[in-house]
């Protein structure tokens, strides 16, 4: 039996969900056991951002692109068994297998366009007879398009490099929904940028467990997600991984936060106040490599400076080798050496960059507690490589992460 899951083109940007998940679509699948899967991709690019040349220069170019009919590969480690009212399937893009040789981007060579041959892994997260998914999907971000008495609709993210729309979500709320930054559901309005955690219902509608609003303005809202590059006292560069605005913020934007921009920290992790160091995020300790959500209010978008209304530090995933383990209060600490292609050490080499303030940009100290999700195939051990997802802070020149989840690493 063959089932078509996507009947029309669907756009998506994968790197911003390195580790975490994001709902892509909802469809009906007949009960049964499925042993193979196929996907057709009509186009796609891989962007490589980093520092190259002498003197060091910041670059962000298309590193790989689909050239002709691609031989897409979808691996199923186990047959997919569909039963019950709700089945969650995960489509994982294997980046290091999809772009060869990946080491060219890691080495800072960004002017050689390679072939992009996507490799995916499709797995099942299990089936349920009724009710909601067992655990919420965290850190969904977008702009409210409309509201009604029982919830709201979040507009699909628009991919800045191609100007096409990705997934969008219908969201309901309940008496147990936690609101942050607004008093409740009645305070939500079209045009607000939101961050939320949500459970999935059998019909694909999301039930929000947390809704956070960091900027309550609804006028000409533009939202962009991406890493900070080359931060200066009042401006920064950032390649935009995902944006929701019309017209689209350029894929390599320069932002200014000199006009009283607000800085905030994502409330996705609830233990920031309990960390054994003073975790802050502002214009004076912003460093290249940190992942941010930028909210602006623009009538037009150009390639000149984009004024920031609110900048929010959001979780990110880093790949690194554990070199030491310890404890500090209620937290287990992991000292990790970052992959050589990671943005933190890469952009720290830029002359005059605020990232020069880092004492050791190759190292992050990771803090994990009882709320940290460990999804590794074996116990964490010194000498092994893992991916850590969480909020990365600049603590007086030392990078420290409040860790939300740990995954198996990718060979460096």
TrEMBL record:
Pfam families from the UniProt entry: DUF5666
Location of the DUF5666 domain: 141-211
Protein's UniProt name: DUF5666 domain-containing protein
Species of origin: mine drainage metagenome
């Amino acid at each position: 039996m063959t089932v078509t899951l996507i009947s029309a083109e669907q756009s998506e940007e994968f790197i911003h969900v390195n580790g975490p998940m994001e709902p892509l679509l909802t469809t009906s699948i007949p009960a049964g056991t499925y042993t193979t899967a196929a996907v057709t991709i009509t186009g796609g690019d891989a962007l490589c951002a980093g520092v190259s040349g002498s003197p060091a220069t910041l670059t962000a170019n298309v590193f790989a692109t689909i050239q002709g009919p691609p031989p897409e590969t979808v691996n199923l480690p186990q047959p997919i068994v569909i039963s019950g009212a709700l089945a969650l399937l995960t489509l994982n893009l294997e980046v290091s297998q999809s772009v060869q040789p990946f080491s060219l981007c890691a080495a800072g060579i960004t002017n050689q366009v390679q072939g992009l041959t996507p490799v995916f892994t499709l797995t099942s997260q299990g089936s349920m007879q009724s009710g909601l998914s067992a655990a919420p999907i965290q850190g969904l971000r977008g702009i409210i398009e409309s509201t009604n008495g029982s919830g709201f609709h979040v507009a699909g993210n628009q991919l800045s490099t191609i100007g096409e729309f990705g997934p969008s979500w219908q969201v309901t709320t309940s008496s147990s929904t936690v609101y942050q930054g607004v008093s409740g559901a009645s305070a939500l309005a079209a045009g607000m940028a939101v961050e939320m955690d949500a459970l999935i219902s059998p019909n694909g509608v999301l039930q929000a467990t947390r809704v956070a609003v960091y900027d309550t303005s609804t006028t000409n809202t533009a939202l962009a997600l991406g890493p900070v590059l080359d931060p200066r006292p009042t401006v920064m560069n950032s390649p935009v991984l995902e944006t929701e605005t019309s017209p689209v913020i350029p894929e390599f934007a320069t932002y200014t936060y000199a006009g009283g921009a607000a800085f905030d920290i994502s409330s996705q992790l609830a233990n920031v106040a309990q960390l054994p160091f003073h975790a802050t995020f502002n214009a004076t300790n912003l460093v290249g490599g940190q992942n941010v959500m930028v909210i602006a209010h623009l009538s037009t978008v150009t390639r000149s400076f984009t004024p920031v209304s609110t900048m929010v530090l959001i979780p990110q995933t880093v790949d690194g080798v554990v070199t030491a383990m310890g404890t500090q209060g209620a937290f287990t600490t992991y000292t990790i050496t970052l992959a050589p292609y990671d943005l933190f050490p890469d952009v720290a080499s830029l002359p005059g960059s605020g990232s020069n303030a880092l004492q050791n940009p190759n190292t992050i100290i990771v803090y994990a507690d009882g709320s940290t999700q460990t999804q590794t195939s074996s116990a964490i051990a010194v000498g092994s490589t893992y991916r850590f997802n969480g909020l990365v802070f600049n603590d007086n020149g030392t990078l420290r992460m409040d860790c939300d989840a740990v995954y198996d690493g990718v060979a460096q």
